[in-house]
């Protein structure tokens, strides 16, 4: 008699390879920078609307935080150097940079949740 059950779930080992604690901590720190950068973009747009040139300083701070966060997150996620360079270059394109930050934030959230972190609005907690 055959013991094969056609309704049984597959038993493939598809788990991501475990990352080291240092990499996960780097991803968590970089994700906070990226989240603050995203919030800074929106705050800079609001400040520019009401206060004019002061908003440019807020946006420049958000761009700087986004650049640093992108580089650190790419290193923590193990991206190759050409991918890092492409993402850094894309950070200088106005709306594309916001999309890049959102995609990187989603990838970091998935990696952190797989490592057992709770990810909220302002970053990850153990």
Strand-helix topology:
Elements: H1 21-51, H2 54-77, H3 81-90, H4 94-114, E1 118-120, E2 123-125
Antiparallel strand pairs: 1-2
Question: Notable features of this structure?
Answer:
mainly alpha, single chain, 126 residues, 68% helix, two-stranded antiparallel sheet
| Overall number of structural domains | 1
Q: Multimeric state of these chains?
A: single chain
Report the average pLDDT across residues. Answer: 88
Give the fraction of residues assigned to helices: 55-70%
What kind of sheet is the major sheet? 2 strands, antiparallel
Strand arrangement in the largest pleated sheet = 1-2
Cα gyration radius (Å):
19 Å
Number of strands: 2
Shape: elongated
Low-confidence stretches: none
**Number of DSSP helical runs:** 4
Distance separating the two termini: 49 Å
Structural class: mainly alpha
Q: Order of helices and strands, N to C?
A: HHHHEE
User: Strand percentage, roughly?
Assistant: under 5%
Organism: Rhodanobacter denitrificans
Keywords: Membrane, Transmembrane, Transmembrane helix
Transmembrane segments: 33-51, 85-104
Protein name: Transmembrane protein
Describe what this molecule looks like in 3D.
With 126 residues, the chain is mainly α. The chain has one domain (21-125). It is built from 4 helices and 2 strands. A two-stranded antiparallel sheet has the order 1-2. A hairpin with a 2-residue loop joins strand 1 and strand 2. Helix 1 (21-51) packs antiparallel against helix 2 (54-77), helix 1 (21-51) packs antiparallel against helix 4 and helix 2 crosses helix 4 (94-114). Keywords: Membrane, Transmembrane, Transmembrane helix. This is Transmembrane protein. The chain crosses the membrane at residues 33-51, 85-104.
